[in-house]
Each structure stands twice: as structure tokens, then as C-alpha cells.
Amino acid sequence: MSWLPIPTGSHFSIANIPFGIITTAADQTPRPAIAIGDHVLDLRAFGSGGGFSASPKVQERADCFASTTLNAFAALGRPFHQATRSYLQSVLAADTKHPELLKDNQQLREAAVLQRSEVKNHLPLAIGDYTDFYAGKNHAYNVGVMFRGPANALQPNYTHLPVAYHGRASSVVVSGTPIRRPWGQILRPGDTNPTLAPCDKLDLELEMGMFICRENSLGAPVSVNDAEQHIFGYVLMNDWSARDVQAWEYVPLGPFTAKNMGTSISAWVILADALEASKGPGITNDTELLPYLKQDSKDNVLGIDLEVDIITAAGKKTTISRTNSRNLLWSWAQMIAHHTITGCNLRPGDLLGSGTISGTESGTEGSILEQTKGGKIPLKLEGGEERKFIQDGDTLVIRGSFGSGDSIVGFGEVSGTIQAPLPLF
Amino acid sequence: MSWLPIPTGSHFSIANIPFGIITTAADQTPRPAIAIGDHVLDLRAFGSGGGFSASPKVQERADCFASTTLNAFAALGRPFHQATRSYLQSVLAADTKHPELLKDNQQLREAAVLQRSEVKNHLPLAIGDYTDFYAGKNHAYNVGVMFRGPANALQPNYTHLPVAYHGRASSVVVSGTPIRRPWGQILRPGDTNPTLAPCDKLDLELEMGMFICRENSLGAPVSVNDAEQHIFGYVLMNDWSARDVQAWEYVPLGPFTAKNMGTSISAWVILADALEASKGPGITNDTELLPYLKQDSKDNVLGIDLEVDIITAAGKKTTISRTNSRNLLWSWAQMIAHHTITGCNLRPGDLLGSGTISGTESGTEGSILEQTKGGKIPLKLEGGEERKFIQDGDTLVIRGSFGSGDSIVGFGEVSGTIQAPLPLF
């Protein structure tokens, strides 16, 4: 398929072409790249070397690949993203019509084609606002039972609108960034006054993230059937959560410090077009929706296979969850339509999270809180250790992909290792 | 006091020296300025003309005044802000030791001293994240009674920690920007299904806003007694709220679309040092606080006199509220300490809101929701009109100041006019 060797099973097949921001030891200026098999193509170097010259449309705006983030590329819109992806696929194809551009251009290959293991990834976009939805109905139900009992697990609004809250944009970090176990205010069982202590119930949240590419003006809602044109692409997300801090602080205005110690995202943004084929029905919603949430198609929820590994400090790996992103009640288009219905302006680089994705069966939950029933039933790990929640030195890894064989469209992974808490002041 | 004529009663006395971003008809590039009486001093022009040459310390970093936002100036830290303010006061003083710099420099005065009425203000800083606290205890109680009844008006956590939630940074606009009445999901009394309709209960929230100047790293909390060094300055804020949308959507994750149609801030940032003298005790908190929230001084809450006017489409003005910013349970330093306790990184340009400021008596409330007891008792306005909530064409104006006579440190105002809703799609 490509003249570059791509291992079978690679997440970064020629069907994918995901975009990220890299640096190398030799050049510390962040710049756009695509991942392809075990390599990356440095798009700044590729552009400088005339790589885009066979596509006048892409060449005309190729200055966006000299930027330190993907925001400029994103803002050019989906037709441009698709043109760029198709062009790069054609350049990388085994039967490329332009071998002189890269395949047979030894000098440019040396400058622009790098080993993926030798580059460092950075946040792909400068994030303006970060919004976290709560579209994983199974998760919302499971957690609602624990926090409020089965009768009030899901609020009356839950099936009428995509519930969401604003998250913290500054604390979003790229995969591989260590996360410090936080101190926080915690109300211990039986106490009437809170304690300041290191979080004792640190958890992951398995989510998908989506980046916005097209701006809408303040006061101008986006219609649900136009919303897809506002989607740049997708990442995996781990919205680390301090459950003990959250339980004490979240009423009445929602989670705040319990989520601000960090949110990890995968490094490579999968373009919206690359995942169109994965779409299908999400969780059935029997509620009659208001017109602004009704989509032309009901098969509009991405279907990404997702897995969560925990790797202990001793190096033992256990896959603790296997699920799929179809376990969402709302499509991204519906989330955009609701986000903007009162006039909120979205901007290129804004990040939206799906909410935690859980299936209905044991071993498909997207949080340890659910897997251990709130810390009551420990997870048994390879090597004999147990976990009620995440311990210092544990590494959590989320992987996600669609397809198989030589045409996988995958995210790679988002990983993070928990560091012991620092002494306070 | 100044060789420039400053009207008695001006909010922008020589004791103030607030910073903002301006453009003029002749020059559309945004640039920093200070307000002084009925004039502004264009700091880019002042710097280009050698205005900072008598202060080596300020001159060395005066390139920050060629920026299109105040972020670079803010990031230089409070000692630099204070040095700049003192220097500008000395240049503007009637007995200035350097009359050749501006007072007697006709050419530079023409280039840099502009009529305030002839400049257009822009957002003073590029806002990274926007957090809204809930520190107005009287407001929290009044609204809690309406939403949850007197027994649950204040949650058990309320006096232990400064409750807050993340707001929407992209929809923060500068004073004077019109606000479009939003459509939104509303559950009408007696209905079981929501309706999509223009907001019928549009309200203001009288708040103070604070901008961050010093960054802390992710994972590194700021101690309460260091927190003042992270404060750049203050603005007035109107956090417009769609009460009917809010009531339906806010459980369990807090307000979302009900607040995203716009948040208005005043144009001139009052430096932290300029308001030190206004500090005193806030609302008494009898709860024993955890050490990270205990401040050396208890007299640490700003005392700003605040007023709210409503001006109808017919041009009739009524002052509907008079209160003071001492009606807060927490100081800004405590809010920063809590915001960062789990490791959240704050960045220069981040905006924090105080929460709605209400006194305990009738006519001191910071929202119409409180004044009309949830829309039950209409406000009687000048000219004979009544209001249960804000109507299309109404202009809401918040003013705030400290001091009197020729040494007022004031904010000017934050105003916004409500526009009729647009048809949907």
C-alpha cells in the first residue's frame, strides 16, 4: 500500500494520516507532522522541500505547516483537511504518480521522514476552552447510583439534552506527561469537617475528545446538520478524577478541583473524515427530542474499540476494560448543536470531551470507580496485586482503533503515570 | 494633582491609573493605554516617543506596550506593574520632574494623549480560562432558597471551601458589546417535557472579576499568603444568566448553556496595588478553616461601592441596586489557594469571577432574580414600567468605585444592551 514499510496492525496505516505536533533533539521548534507506521513525516520540512507542489490547493495554504500548533491548519476547514490527507496518501502510496517528491527524493526523505520513536509529541492544538460532556449513559447511571441512589441516578433532563460542564483547558496535557497525585479537601465517612489530604480515590475516565475547527459567532447557534463541518478530529482522553474530592465539592455547581490536576489526551488527531466509516447507532434514546437535536441520520455515533491497561510500578500489565465508543447517547453533532443553542461561540482549538464511556457488562466500564463498585470490590491484577483505586507509580494506558489488518485507523494511546504527592508548602 | 485637567469625581483619578486595550478610527491596531480623567494615554505611542526613558526599569521592558493585549505586561509581575503605575503618576503629576517627557512635549501629547470618548475599548487580556466563584454568601443563600428550599440553601461544603465552577472564556466580551437574548431548553411549570424557546427569565449577575498575572506550574499549589503576587488587577463583571434554562439544566454538573450567551467585563483593569487601601473584613466565617485557606490577615476583602442601573428602551434610568464588594465570604487570595490546591495551573490572562454580590437588605441584591423573589414581585422602574426580568432593549449598567473627590479609584462601568432573539435556523 505504501512504499514506506508499515507493520501490519499499525494504528497509523495509510488509511489514517493523523496530525500532531513534534520536536526532535536536533530541532526544538514545535511543528506539524503526520504519523505513518513507525515513522512520522515532518510537514514543515516536507513543505519547505517542495513536497506540496503537486497540489496547488494545498500548496497555496501550506504556510499553516510552519506553525507551532495545528490551529491554523484546523481553521482551514474540513475540505482542506481532506484534500491534504488525500494528497499525503497519494504521495505515500506504493504506486505514487509523483515519486520524485519524496519516494525517490533521498535528500527530502532524510530531512522529513523521521523515526516515530525519535520524536517528542506536544499538545496538537492550543486549546481555547475545554468542555466535558456526560454522554456515556451507562457511566452516568452507574455513578449516579453511587452518588444519589438508583431512583435519582439519572436526572429528568438527562435524555432531553447532552449534559455537560466546562473543564479546565490549562491542565490538558499530552500523552506521557506524568500526573501528580493531588492534595484536596475530603470529607471522610462519619466526619462532619473535611480534611486536607492526598487524594485516596484517584481514578481514570475513559473518554473520546474532539477538536473544533470552524468558528461560530457569539449569538449564532450551529444547526445539528451543519455541525459536522465544525469537527476537526478526534483524540483519546483520560479525564483523571479525584473521587473523594469530587464527592465533597460537586454540589451545587459541579466538579472543580477534583478534575484540575490534569486531563491527558493522545498526541495524534484523527481527522473526522478518517473515522466516517466507523459510524453507526449509539445508545437508543426513546425520548422525543426537540427539533434542534434531531439529526437526519441516526447512525452518527463513532464506533472505536477501546481498551484500558493498568501497568504497576513493578511493570505488570493488566487490561482492565474493553469497550466501544458506541456507548454514547449523543453524537458529536448533537453535542455541538446543544453547546451553541444559547449562542456560545466555539473556536478552532476548542476541545470537547464525550464523558466517560462504559458498556453495560463487567469489564466494559470506563472508570475504576465503576469496576470496584466505589472501591468495595478490588480489581485483581497480573502479578497478584489488587487495586481499589490508582496507586502511585501506576501507569494507565488507553488505546483505541477502528478496523483491522493493513487499514487500521487508530489513535495509538494516551498514557500517564501517577507520581507520589509532593509535601504541601 | 495632574497637569491634565481631571474632573472632580472622575473614576480615573491620578490615584488610579487603570490599564486597557484601545483602538482609534485612525489606527485599528489594538494597543495598551491607561485611562486618566476624560483622556487616555496611548502607551505604545508614549513608549515610541521616549516616554519611559526616565525609568530604566520600565524602559527595559517597554516592548510589552507594543502588544495587542495586556498579557505580556501582566506576566512581568506586580513589582513591575507598581513601578509602571508610579512612574506614570509622576509623569502626569502637576509637579512632574520630567515635564520635557510629556507635559511640555507638544508632539508626543498630540500623538499619545487622546480623548477617552474617541477611543474604542477591547478585551484587556486574551483570556485563557475563566472560573466563576460563588463567594457571595448572601446571594448563594437567596438563590439556594429558591432552587432547593431554606433547609438546603447552602450546602455543607459552602463555608469550608470557596465553591466555584468553570465558565466559558470565549464568550467573555468587553463593556458595550450587545448581548443576544438566547434560545434554550426550558421546562415550563407543570410540563414534563422541555420546550425550546427564547429565554423568558434573563438576569444579570453583579460580580467582580480578577485577572491572574503570575503562572504556577501544573501540580504546584499556590499558598494563600503568596497568592496576592498572582493578582494582576480587577474589573467589574456581569455574568448574564438565563434563569429558566439554568433551572432545568444545572443538575448534576452545574450551569452550562444558561451562562454561555455572554459575560461582560469593564474595559479598564484596576491594578491590585491601586485597591489595597480598600481592603477590610468580608462576611464573617465562623467555620474553622483548613490551614491552606487561613490568611495572615483577616482584613483582606476589597471594599468597592457598587451600583446597578437599568435603562429601558425608552431611555428611563433606574438604579436598582446599591451594594459593596465586602459581601463576600472569601478573599481573592483564598480563592487562588483553593483553585490551585489540587495542582491546577493558573496562567497570565486567566479570569476569575467572585460570584454574585448581594447585601442582606432589599435594594442591595446583585441579581433581579433575588430582587423580584424569582419573578413574583415586579421591580417598579422610573417612567412607570415594571420588570420581572430583563426585557429586550434594556441596558444594564454596573458601576463601581472606591474613595471620593479627587482620588477616586473607579472602574467606570460595564454595560450591555439586550437584543431581541434571532429566528432559529
TrEMBL record, chains A, B:
Membrane-spanning residues: none
Enzyme Commission no: 3.7.1.2
Domain Fumarylacetoacetase-like C-terminal: 132-401
Pathway(s) this gene product operates in, as recorded in its UniProt entry: Amino-acid degradation; L-phenylalanine degradation; acetoacetate and fumarate from L-phenylalanine: step 6/6
Enzyme class of the recorded protein, top EC level: hydrolase
Single Gene Ontology MF annotation: fumarylacetoacetase activity
Catalytic activity: 4-fumarylacetoacetate + H2O = acetoacetate + fumarate + H(+)
Family: Belongs to the FAH family.
Matches recorded under NCBIfam families: fum_ac_acetase
Protein name: Fumarylacetoacetase
Species this chain originates from: Cylindrodendrum hubeiense
Lineage: Eukaryota, Fungi, Dikarya, Ascomycota, Pezizomycotina
